Amino acid sequence: MTDVQRVRFGLVVPQGWRGDLAGRDFETAALVARRAEELGFDSIWLYDHLQTRDGNPDVVLECWLTLAALARETSRVQLGQIVTCALYRNPALLAQMASTLDAASGDRVFLGLGAGWDEREYVDFGYGEALPPIRERLAHLERTLQVLRARRGARPILVGGAGEKILLRLVAQYADACNLSDSLDPAFYRHKLDVLRAHCDAVGRDDTEILKTATFTVRDGEQVDFAALTGAGIEYFIVYVEPAADLRRLERFASTVDVANV
Fold first, then answer.
1. How confident is the model at residue 262 (pLDDT cuts 50, 70, 90)?
2. CA-CA distances (angstroms) from residue 240 to 3, 20, 163, 207, 214?
3. Is the backbone peptide bond immediately before 83 cis, with ω within 30 degrees of 0?
4. Of 260 and 259, which is predicted with more confidence?
5. Reduced to 3 states, what is the DSSP secondary structure of residue 18?
6. Average of pLDDT values for 257-262?
7. Checking phi first, is residue 50 left (phi over 0); if not, alpha (psi -120 to 50) or beta?
8. What is the predicted pLDDT for the residue at 12?
9. Which of 22, 39, 81, 200 could form a disulfide with 207 if both were Cys (CB 3.0 to 4.6 A apart)?
């Protein structure tokens, strides 16, 4: 068993963006979600993408509608988005959607939010002729965070991204959790959390109020040093376990890190 203490695990459930479902296969997504809850995962998460990386929308389950259905398939796990693209939904509408999902799930929403990055998807779904420049996206992200705070009060918000000048400042100002992704290097997380701590100091906030989360893929046969990442400051792991629809693989992973007892 991996020596992982004082941390929690969430699972990214297959929803098609990564080619992990054969068609819009909700039943497989539900099966994985239910098994994750049984195994002791703290939360389940979905990507907020509308088509595959090569542009096929026909095999992808939309994030928020799928989570609404999964709310009725589960009873305990938190329900998160890794992460909602702030550009895709009006901020007030997003707040209403989250509150509706809270009503359907018994207040289990962990609202994940990011600035957005997938230009092909943005254009293909008619949001605009090109993805806005990063400064515009970050400004829109901040406006969305302000609306969510005004309409949803203290309900939890996670902000995804690692930008040191602006994005981590937004985490310090508005978020209950940060999400850093796609690295297994403790030094990466240690540095980013140092930057976040400095932003917290600048705005007069205690950085221990912010949950430090990391997201990455765990491939079959790959050894991840969760203890080292915890030592770097990560408190919560949101993992995509490949192959994502393989329940036996999921069970092996859960046993290896002792998901139910950490």
1. low
2. 20, 11, 22, 27, 11
3. yes
4. 259
5. coil
6. 83
7. alpha
8. 98
9. 200
**Domains, the chain, ranges and CATH?**
8-257 (3.20.20.30)
The span from the CA of 61 to the CA of 14, in Å, is 9
Phi-psi group of 19: left, alpha or beta (phi > 0 → left; psi -120 to 50 → alpha; rest → beta): left
User: Which of 81, 63, 107 shows the shortest CA–CA distance to 215?
Assistant: 81
d(CA 144, CA 150): 10
Point out the least confidently predicted range of 5-14, 71-80, 109-118, 226-235: 5-14
Confidence bin at 132 (pLDDT 50/70/90): very high
Cα gap 97→191, rounded to integer Å: 35
| Cβ–Cβ < 8 Å for 48, 12 | no
Q: Can you read off the two tokens belonging to residue 196?
A: 């976040």
Inform me whether the pLDDT recorded for 70 exceeds 50: yes
Other Cβ atoms closer than 10 A to 227: 14
Q: CB burial class (10 A; 0-12, 13-18, 19+) of residue 93?
A: exposed
Phi-psi region of 98 (alpha: psi -120 to 50; beta: other; left: phi over 0): alpha
Q: How far apart are CA 185 and CA 41, in angstroms?
A: 23
147 near 92, Cβ under 8 Å?
A: yes
Provide the CA 112 distance to its chain's centre, in angstroms: 5
Tell me how far apart the terminal alpha carbons of the chain are, to the nearest angstrom.
11
> What tokens appear for 14 in the block?
């297959």
Write out pLDDT tens, residues 151-178. Answer: 999 999 999 999 999 999 999 999 999 9
Contacting residues for 172 by C-beta, under 8 A, at least 6 apart = 196, 199, 200, 202, 203, 205, 207, 210
